[in-house]
Design a protein that fits this description.
The structure holds 3 protein chains of 3 kinds. In chain A, 63% of the residues lie in helices and 1% in strands. Chain A contains 16 helices and 2 strands. Chain C has 2 domains: 39 residues; 151 residues, Rieske Iron-sulfur Protein, CATH 2.102.10. The chains are: A mainly alpha, B mainly alpha, C alpha+beta. The interface between A and C is medium-sized, with 14 and 11 residues.
């Protein structure tokens, strides 16, 4: 993005407004004309999908709040009131509940895309780091949202996770009491989680704006990892990527609809349909699926404090990724050994999620530890070494060259 | 390294695909219900029979606080008429609002009233039964018939099957189990909290008579009441599946159109 | 977008227009549940009807019942109150319209049109002053207040907020209220029971 805006207001009103608040020019530059690499594949549509899911969650959330009561005696029944009595309440609730899972599916694909194509590398380090903060805020938002229906898992999940803070030396118990607003998870906790759950999505919207701003300074990466050399490498965002993203969003919505209408409780836990009972712990407490890998890491370390440190470190280490990966080559397409390790890493993450869903007994424990160790080794050992030792494959000179070289066999016109 | 990857893929698939049971709970019997599947619908007659079983047998100990009489006439449910619901509600007595002297007297039930509970509070329920009989409004969504990520994807979560299996699953314990069985409890391998349950077998052949002469063995009544409880847990299920069909058709059409729009947009660009 | 031959342009335009139309229809269909969720839900609608037992209301007494969140006045009128209401001429009324959901909108506010089924001894109306919504006070049996020259001096309702005065048929006679107290839809299930709403 460089140079003056291509927006030239034609009407008098347009000119008058543009001199005072150039928002139309801004929209034209960043949402319509923005030069985008022409070789982006469908993995690059997930940013747009995430923006749509954030809007879906905010809108469904706001209408749900019109009928929800954040009080321990009333919360569970207010959610059932939504499901049974409120016009289309069942739809709004299931959309919000499954929308959260869809949000995380999309964000994981988006993050793995970034890790494969080296989107975190210079000069996009801050873009990546804002992304990690967005991810952390998403996790906090979803955690607090899950508490609101006040089912058994809402209560006990809240209790387990807030208890983690008591591991902090010296101040742990005070911090936990402060979080709870009492001596246990109870009404004060529910009320403040409700307030913050309403607040954070708007913080997310602000972070997303910063995220896109940070992206638009250098512009998008692309599957070759080679920077844009000129206009021959790009197309304007509209209509090329508005239409491609639009198509991807509709397909994603079909996948979303399958869950909302035909499997709305598949990703959840049946025990959350039992009202919270502080005196009776469910047989297996586990968080929602998108936290399972981190839950496995937490439980892999036998010490309470170090387990907590390991869990938070496993996310915070992502912040260091731009510096841990020493390779001068951006895209995994030209890094055959990295590609292999990337696939292993992805499998390790899924396997950690599986371990997190199981009771911490028997062979699950040892596997959890092996996979946790490998997870950290990927960042601390493998990536730094790979950059120094790997010989990359030959790369094309530019985006256009890469596109043309793939197309050459089809350049002969066929009628 | 490739071997390690293969090992991980294979073990994930193995663990994910196997139907694992909780300790002490046998996986539920895999019977089918009319309302399962993307085009499933409730059998109205079955729901009415299931309501009769709830009313005459289960409601003596189990509350159903999320249901109102008027729900029995709702679309997608047992299909009672407004008159039937009004007459039924009037057979129950509910506490009215305090009168001018501050006393709470009973009045006839109205359709807008909730189903009455057998006990005034949890303590009374425990005192009468040894353990609190759970509220049944959501029971088929609050229980899993079996486990396993892929198992639940193909076969559903098995809530109704859990209820059916529990009701038909009482049996004589083996000698070993009989030794472990606490007094006053019963042996049922399908019970999710271990094989010893405080509830005595609630059903017996012929316990409830259906006006249309439908079969009333334990097996039939268990199926009927499991279906009824599936409706109380999800009264909007038929509407949900119907809307889902319409939404997916719409999205498929829109996806097709967007696909061609995208292709046409990109027609002249090498990419 | 690059230019194209005429035929291609028409095909592409049709595709764009069709897609835009389908997307627009979808947007409207999606918007509907979000708008409709604010409409009264099933539990509110279920309480929209209330049955009133008239037997315990003695002559000269009234009860006030909550109906759709508002006070509903049910008064068993005395013969004197009914005679006085009937003696009022329509021309003397501030609001000549019946304001009774059970009769035609155009009907006038005769005493007969303020009740239902010819059962003139029972007056059923919403106790919400048509000025700004306060609840008028009906304990006027012994209270004297000036209405109009020669009209009944006791009975009826008096609104304490701004002084509106309603007669024994609930019709506005004096004060800032513009309309007679509204009579909701109701019918007799038996001689001693009505269902309102």
């Amino acid at each position: 993005m460089s140079g003056p805006s291509k927006y030239q207001p034609t009407s008098a009103v347009g000119k008058w407004f543009h001199e005072r608040l150039p928002i139309v020019a801004f929209a034209k530059d960043h949402m319509l004309d923005f030069p985008t690499p022409k070789n982006l594949n469908y993995f690059y549509t997930f940013g747009g999908i995430l923006a749509v899911m954030l809007i879906v969650q905010i809108i469904t959330g706001i209408v749900l709040v019109m009928h929800y009561t954040p009080q321990t005696d009333l919360a569970f029944n207010s959610v059932e009131h939504i499901m049974r009595d409120v016009n289309y309440g069942w739809l709004l609730r299931y959309m919000h509940m499954n929308g959260a899972s869809m949000f995380f599916i999309a964000v994981y694909i988006h993050m793995f895309r970034g890790m494969y194509y080296g989107s975190y590398k210079a000069p996009r380090e801050v873009l990546w780091m804002i992304g990690v903060i967005i991810y952390l805020v998403m996790m906090a938002t979803a955690f607090m949202g899950y508490v609101l229906p006040w089912g058994q898992m809402s209560f006990w999940g809240a209790k387990v996770i807030t208890n983690l803070f008591s591991a902090i030396p010296f101040v742990g118990d005070s911090v936990t009491t402060w979080l709870w607003g009492g001596y246990s998870v109870d009404n004060p906790t529910l009320n403040r989680f409700f307030s913050l759950h309403y607040l954070l999505p708007f913080v997310l919207a602000g972070l997303v704006a910063l995220h896109i701003w940070a992206l638009h300074v250098p512009g998008n990466t692309n599957p070759t990892g080679i920077s844009i050399k000129g206009p021959q490498d790009t197309v304007p965002f509209h209509p090329y990527y508005t239409m491609k993203d639009g198509f991807a969003v509709v397909v994603f919505l079909m996948f979303y609809a399958l869950f909302v209408f035909y499997g709305p409780n598949y990703m959840g836990d049946a025990v959350n349909y039992v009202p919270a009972n502080p005196l009776s712990t469910p047989a297996h407490i586990k968080p929602e699926w998108y936290y399972l890998p981190f839950y496995a890491i937490l439980r892999s370390v036998p010490d309470k404090l170090f387990g907590v440190i390991a869990m938070f470190s496993s996310i915070l280490i992502l912040l260091a990724l731009p510096w841990l990966d020493t390779s001068k080559v951006r895209s995994g397409n030209y890094r055959p050994i990295f590609k292999g390790f990337f696939i292993v890493f992805a499998i390790v993450c899924v396997a950690l999620g599986f371990i997190g869903s199981k009771p911490p007994e028997g062979s699950y424990v040892i596997w959890g530890r092996i996979l946790t160790a490998y997870y950290f080794a990927h960042f601390i050992i493998i990536l730094p070494l790979l950059g120094l030792l790997e010989t990359p494959n030959p790369m094309p000179a530019s985006i256009s060259d890469d596109v043309l070289s793939k197309r050459r066999p089809m350049l002969a016109p066929a009628e | 390294m490739k071997k390690f990857a293969t090992l991980l893929i294979v073990s994930s698939a193995l663990f994910g695909g196997v139907a694992l049971a909780e300790e002490g709970a046998k996986p539920a019997k895999g019977i089918n219900f009319s309302f399962e599947g993307p085009f499933g619908k409730f059998d109205r007659a079955q729901l009415q029979r299931g309501y009769k079983v709830y009313k005459e047998v289960c409601s003596n100990c189990h509350s159903m606080k999320l249901m109102s009489f008027r729900n029995l006439a709702d679309k997608g449910g047992p299909g009672f008429t407004e008159e039937q619901v009004k007459a039924l509600a009037a057979t129950f007595k509910v506490p009215a609002s305090p009168n001018s002297a501050g006393e709470i007297v009973d009045r006839d039930g109205q359709p807008s009233d909730r189903f009455p509970s057998p006990y005034a509070n949890t303590e009374a329920a425990v005192a009468a039964n040894g353990a609190a009989p759970p509220d049944l409004s959501l029971i088929t969504k609050a229980r899993e018939g079996w486990h396993g990520t892929f198992n639940q994807l193909w076969n559903g979560i098995g809530g109704p099957q859990y209820v059916y299996s529990l009701l038909t699953g009482y049996e004589e314990p083996s000698a070993e189990m009989a030794k472990e069985k606490p007094d006053g409890k019963y042996y049922n391998p399908y019970f999710q909290a271990g094989p010893f349950i405080s509830m005595p077998p609630p059903l017996a052949d012929g316990l409830v008579t259906f006006d249309d002469g439908s079969p009333n063995t334990v097996d039939d009544m268990a199926k009927d009441v499991a279906a009824f409880l599936s409706w109380t847990a999800e009264p909007k299920m038929e509407e949900r599946k119907q809307t889902g069909f319409e939404v997916l058709i719409y999205l498929a059409v829109l996806a097709g159109l967007m696909y061609f729009v995208k292709k046409k947009t990109w027609a002249n660009v090498e990419h | 977008m690059s230019t194209a031959v005429d035929g291609n342009v028409n095909r592409r335009d049709f595709l764009m227009v069709a897609t835009g139309a389908v997307a627009g229809v979808g947007a409207a269909l999606v918007a509907w549940p979000f708008i409709n969720q604010m409409n009264p839900d099933a539990s509110v609608l279920a309480l929209a009807s209330v049955e009133v037992d008239l037997a315990p209301i003695a002559e000269g007494q009234a009860v006030t019942i909550k109906w759709r969140g508002n006070p509903l006045i049910v008064r068993h009128r005395t013969k004197a109150e009914i005679e006085d209401a009937k003696s009022v001429k329509i021309e003397d009324l501030k609001d000549p319209s019946a304001r009774n959901a059970n009769v035609k909108d155009s009907d006038q506010a005769t005493d007969a049109n303020r009740v239902v089924g010819g059962k003139e001894q029972f007056l059923v109306m919403l106790g919400v002053c048509t000025h700004l919504g306060c609840v008028p006070d009906g304990n006027n049996a012994s209270r004297e207040f000036a209405v109009v020259e020669g009209a009944i001096k006791t009975g009826g309702w008096f609104c304490p907020c701004h002084g509106s005065q309603y007669d024994t048929a609930g019709r506005i006679r004096k004060g800032p209220a513009p309309e007679n107290l509204p009579v909701p839809p109701y019918k007799y299930l038996s001689d001693t029971k009505v269902v309102v709403g």
